[in-house]
Amino acid sequence: MAVKVLLPNAFQKHTNNVKEISSTAANLPELVTDIEGRFPALRQHLRGDDGQIRRFINFYVNEEDIRFLGNEKYAFQEGDEVLVIPSIAGGSC
Amino acid sequence: MPVVPQSFAKRGTLTTAYWLRCRECGKTYGHQPLSICDECFSPLEVAYDLEYAKTRFTRDTISQGPLNMWRYQALLPVKDSYVPQTPSGLTPLVRAPRLGTQFGAKNLYIKNDAVCMPTLSFKDRVVAVALANAQDFGFDTVGCSSTGNLANAVAAHAARLGLKTYILVPSDLEPAKILNTQVYGATLVRVDGNYDHVNRLSSQIAERYNWGFVNVNLRPYYAEGSKTVGFEIAEQLGWRLPDNVVVPMAGGSLITKIRKAFNELIELGLVEDKPVKFFGAQATGCSPIAKAVKNDTDVIEPQRPSTIARSLAIGNPADGIYASRVIRGTGGWAEDVSDVEIVSAIQELAETEGIFTETAGGVTTAVTARLYAHGRIKPDELTVTCITGNGLKTTDCLSGAYDESRAIRPRLADFETFVEEHNAASQGLSLAGESHGG
Q1: Closest chain A CA to residue B44
Q2: Domains in chain A, please, with CATH?
């Protein structure tokens, strides 16, 4: 079982310009561990002083915010596309 | 104390006195189309050399400026040499005595951006600043994700500046807002999904294409345009700050930028320092920031929007955390109101003050009423409520609200009969009301 993971431009400085990876992670915590293992330089930027993933980093699975799917409890499915977007922009007033 | 990038510290022939700075870690980035810090992935904002601004941003220089938002150019992120092409802003600040009577308010003002030019919403302000920078960066194509008003503004301003446009909107947008985008020749992309889906797609597009997306890679510049609402409120009050401001919230940016404007005015000595309470308004069907305020937190839980106030229907507000901080930090509050209350408030504002606002303005007006009713705003306090868009764009929310009157023949007798019937009907309604009121 593998999922496609798309990384944002803002990460590329810490990922040797890698924009996309394939991961066998079963869920979000495993995916974050996988990403940090591949790109050790990214780890200190991904997490705040409290060790938690920074609040401005958003994860989407097949167009849906993972928080609507159960967040860390969501079990990735074969073929899922995971999109990482820091500091989701946009907005009206 | 922010670190001024070297290239800006010595001005010499340079004509910029601003730079991008991370809102969380403070890293600076100079001047470039970028909205995210590559160190901590937090949003960027524009910081200014306020010492430099002190000589250029004074009551005198402002009063000699143009009769639009560009009178505040010295505290907007454009070069000194920039010649504005898009005269927006400087909308009326009007007293609202009749609406105030309804609410029990004695000192209520309306900042009326329902008549902001050229597209009848406050979005003309932010787009004016964003596209000035798009041109400066050399983009020939600009775009945005939008719930409607921004789409209209980007399309109109881009047409004036000769830029190509790609505008992404939720497919269920009000027909008037779609038409008011297409008429300017914009390329409109309707997306199956809500605003948050559209927004996410825009972030991906902005990374793939070398375009200027006003609310993605140009966002720090774009957002600064909102400050002009705050500058105008202060100037129109005779260079003083109000006690309270009531602001609609979608992404949460406007309320933070009005605060920033007030703080800059205080720091530059243009107004006296005083506490101003900030109040946020949302629709109950999409109220992640109001919920955070009520829970006394800046942790924003995203929601799936379901409200007629589509221009506020952003379930994952980009600046929600900062909006919640501003509101709670100033002793303000946030409220949310139902769709029924929104429509009633649109009618009440129109009937009392002659201002026809869209659904977002209905939200703000209904929330303002509740803030007075609950005693969170006192009757004598100088309060400004911000109306950000025009009712002509969302007339569908009033469909069925009014009967189509029958036509009469062009005869005086018919007219007199009509008046008698109308008065009788009105009296009947009045008596029915008294009876119910009991």
Answers
A1: A87
A2: 3-86 (3.10.20.30)
Alpha-carbon dihedral B90, B95, B96, B100, rounded to 10 degrees: 130
Q: How far is B385 from chain A (nearest CA, A)?
A: 14
Least Cα distance to B280 among B322, B358, B334 occurs for B334
Output the pLDDT for position B252: 95
**Residue B244: which residues within 8 A CB-CB, separation 6 or more?**
B276, B277, B278, B279, B332, B377, B381, B382, B383, B384
Question: Please, is B104 exposed, middle or buried when counting C-beta atoms within 10 Å of its C-beta (0-12, 13-18, 19+)?
Answer: middle
Its ipTM equals 0.92
Contact B315, B360 (CB under 8 A): no
What residues 34-93 of chain A have any CB closer than 8 A to a CB of chain B?
Answer: 45-46, 48, 54-58, 60, 63, 65, 67-68, 83, 85-93
Binned at pLDDT 50, 70 and 90, residue A91 comes out as low
CA dist., res. A36 & res. A46, Å (int): 8
| CB spacing of B39 vs A45 below 8 angstroms | yes
Do the beta carbons of residue B78 and residue B132 sit within 8 Å? Answer: yes
pTM to 2 decimal places = 0.93
Phi, psi (deg, nearest 5) at residue A71:
55, -120
The DSSP annotation for B68-89 comes to: SGGGGGGGSSS-TT--------
Residues sharing a CB contact under 8 Å with residue B54, sequence separation 6 or more, in sequence order: B268, B269
CA atoms within 13 A on the CB side of B391: 22
Strands (E), B17-100: 18-22, 28-30, 44-48, 93-95
**Measured CA distances, A85 to A6, A11, A29, B128, B303 (Å):** 9, 10, 16, 27, 18
Q: Cα-flanking dihedrals φ and ψ of residue B212, to 5°? A: -95, 105
How wide is the angle at C-alpha B225 spanned by C-alphas B222 and B229, nearest 5°? 150
CA distance A62 to chain B (A): 11
CB B103 within 8 A of CB B383: no
**What CA–CA distance (Å, rounded) separates B208 from A20?**
13
Please write the tens of the pLDDT for every residue from B314-372: 898 989 999 999 999 999 999 999 999 999 999 999 999 999 999 999 999 999 999 99
Q: Which residue positions in chain B have pLDDT lower than 50?
A: 1-15, 437-438
Helix, coil or strand: residue B117: coil
The SS3 assignment for A13 reads helix
b/e per residue B190-204 (b: at least 16 CB within 10 A): ebebbbbbbbbbbbe
* A21-72 pLDDT per residue, tens: 999 999 999 999 999 999 999 998 999 888 889 988 999 999 899 999 999 9
Q: Is residue B83 a contact partner of residue B118, using CB atoms and an 8 Å limit?
A: no
Q: Residue written as tokens 């105030």?
A: B100
